[in-house]
Amino acid sequence: MLGLFEKWECSVAEVQLAAGDILTLYTDGVTEAENAEDEQFGESRLVETLRTQHHLPVSSLLETIVAAVQEFSDREQADDVTLVLARCR
């Protein structure tokens, strides 16, 4: 939430990434996409997609995640869907 809130509480942590790890940055439009039952796509579905498809090239993995969100949400897109993926070498 860069620059959005004057006062914002968050936790800070350091994580060592290893070769093959995938750094994933995403907006709430990914996790908060809803289906007809008002169920959200959620972090667990995102993590599961990353876990099962991590072998794909980053560009294909990105397309797979976006397709999963769109398939899950049968409604018109209500928010931006932004993803940044980077695989560590």
Please outline what is shown here.
This protein is an alpha+beta fold and 89 residues long.
Describe the structure.
The chain is an alpha+beta fold and 89 residues long. The protein is 35% helix and 11% strand. The chain has helices at residues 28-31, 42-53, 58-72, and strands spanning 22-26, 83-87. A two-stranded antiparallel ribbon has the order 1-2. Helix 2 (42-53) runs antiparallel to helix 3 (58-72). The longest helix has 15 residues, at 58-72. It is globular, with a radius of gyration of 14 Å. The two termini are 28 Å apart.
Describe the global form. globular
**Estimated structural class:** alpha+beta
Identify low-pLDDT runs: none
Give the number of helices.
3
Q: Biggest sheet, strands in spatial order?
A: 1-2
Indicate the radius of gyration in whole angstroms: 14 Å
**Percent strand:** 5-15%
Order of helices and strands: EHHHE
What is the average per-residue confidence, as pLDDT, rounded to a whole number?
Answer: 91
The tally of beta strands, per DSSP, is 2
Proportion in helices: 25-40%
**In whole angstroms, how far apart are the ends?**
28 Å
Largest sheet: 2 strands, antiparallel
